[in-house]
Amino acid sequence: MHNKIIIPLLINVLFTFQMFAGGFQVNLQGQKQTGMGHAGIGLALDNAALVFNPGALIFVDSLGSFSAGASFIIPRTVFLDPNSTYVAQTINHTGTPLSVYANFKIKKKSPLTFGFALYNPFGSRVQWEDDWKGQFLLREISLKTFFYQPTLSYKITEKLGIGVGYIFANGDFSLRKGVPIQDSLGNYGEATLAGKATGKGFNAGVYYKLNEKFSVGLNYRSAVKVKVENGTADFSSAQTVSQYFQDSTFNTQLNLPFMASIGLGYHLNNKVKIALDINYVGWKSYDSLNIDFAKNSDKLADVASPRLYKNTFIFRTGLQYQISEIFCIRAGAYYDQSPVKDGYLTPETPDSDKIGVSTGFSIAFKKWLYIDASLLYAEGLKRTDTNLETQFEATYKTKAVIPGINVGIKF
Fold it and tell me: 0.85 cut: is pTM over it?
């Protein structure tokens, strides 16, 4: 019986990176772009092109620039029991993903520009009350990841640019789950897992100006293989079964998905820019998860768990209106398909198709100083599912409000 309890408890733990990525994927790598539905593959808006399209970076109109910004994710998830009136919701926490970008040319007319990006593509925190109905699946999970990306962008002609960046990724996570075994006082046990991970990949792009009005961009961000080595698994359990659940370490390898994108930019006139992006995300590579524990027992074996994710599309559109030399406004929207098939939904980040709407503005105080701000509202469609491994039946509804700000200088 304990084997059937503990293995489902641990199977989903190290899938944390994927679950945060696909479960409630809110990309926040540029405040201008976020204000336009996070679209920007086909426009050279600013140095956030380091992430959106390195090929467009060379067309950013300055000798160099530096910017730093952050977003503030304010999420809320509600759980409803399909078979009763029971309701639970997550404890409020605010996530603060950041972005720091720098780029420079040796001289103004140089066809080559250098850049560096530091950003958080995945990172959040989900916490339920310790005694909620799904406590044996999840009590709390926290994830932080950092991508470091040195980049080169080269202008082949006055209309064509290419760029490539090397990605080094690292991160850490922690997770708590209840163990459905009681001690003599009636208290349930708990499993606490934590780990650090590193990986590498690349980000490449092509940008082309068809004419004065149209531009097109292609971007490919590779899958990033993330290795977790010597993660820790700590258990508190009843004395009578503690020999089966000894503290241990574990190793595993996770794959963050590739993203292939095409973007179209349209300059309606000297005041209005319109963006349309389509992202194709390679979640299908996550067909299984393997976990190797250093200490095994009759009740704690290594894990090979099916995932069967599917590839998905994200559709984005947005516009920018330049009101004056110092002030412009933005608006946008997107539709993000869920990669999680029926039967694989979990409370880590209860996933469904998502809709987002956004707005934003920029103020240029000087020719060299500017501030960007954005506000995004994202909502997951209501979804009911029964997990095939745990048989946990649930209805989830998730939403998030995300303001953000960025300060930059040009030189």
Answer: yes
